[in-house]
């Protein structure tokens, strides 16, 4: 009788642990699939193209004074091809890579971000002056490394 009671307690403990474990896994999976940005720092590099926000790279306005640029670095270029943002507004860059380590470095600015497969990197920057800025890859990433660049147009 006494033995039986202990077995029940252990069984209950086991089930409880399983429930807790599954909840954590479930919540984590949900957060990764649905949270648009912020607070996220890991991503499955094989599923970048289908994981928000990278399933739709580009510029989006978050509020009156804030924009987000979602970009994917890959050998040997960046998605999207065309980036246009306003001067004088906060721009949050959200970057990842689908293959190897690249960088997302904007010439003449303090934006020098690592683009690492499996990781999401974010940086906020406000352009003072309009113009066309060069985006370069500063991490050696293979034969096309020296050609890996794009431009960002900052409008008034
Ligand atoms: Cu990409 Cu160097």
TrEMBL record:
Locate the transmembrane regions by residue number: 9-31
Catalytic reaction annotation: 4 Fe(II)-[cytochrome c] + O2 + 8 H(+)(in) = 4 Fe(III)-[cytochrome c] + 2 H2O + 4 H(+)(out)
Q: Where in the cell is it found?
A: Cell envelope
**What CDD domains does the record tag this protein with?**
ba3_CcO_II_C
Instruction: Give the Cytochrome oxidase subunit II copper A binding domain ranges.
Output: 62-156
Please give the chief subcellular localization of this protein. other
Supply the alphabetized keyword list: Copper, Membrane, Metal-binding, Transmembrane, Transmembrane helix
What is the protein's known function? Subunits I and II form the functional core of the enzyme complex. Electrons originating in cytochrome c are transferred via heme a and Cu(A) to the binuclear center formed by heme a3 and Cu(B).
The entry's protein name is Cytochrome aa3 subunit 2
What is the scientific name of the source organism? Siminovitchia sediminis
| High-level lineage | Bacteria, Bacillati, Bacillota, Bacilli, Bacillales
């Amino acid at each position: 009788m006494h033995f039986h009671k202990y077995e029940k307690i252990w069984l209950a403990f086991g089930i409880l642990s399983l429930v807790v474990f599954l909840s954590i896994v479930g919540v984590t999976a949900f957060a990764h699939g649905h949270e648009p940005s912020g607070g996220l720092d890991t991503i499955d590099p094989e599923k970048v193209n289908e994981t928000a926000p990278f399933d739709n790279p580009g510029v989006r306005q978050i509020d009156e004074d804030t924009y987000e640029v979602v970009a994917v670095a890959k050998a040997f270029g960046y998605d999207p091809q065309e980036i246009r943002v306003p001067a004088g507004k906060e721009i949050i860059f959200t970057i990842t890579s689908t293959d190897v380590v690249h960088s997302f470095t904007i010439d003449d600015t303090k934006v020098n971000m690592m683009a690492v497969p499996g990781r999401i990197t974010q940086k906020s920057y406000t352009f003072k002056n309009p113009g066309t800025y060069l985006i370069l890859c500063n991490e050696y990433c293979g034969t096309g490394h020296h050609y890996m660049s794009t431009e960002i147009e900052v409008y008034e």
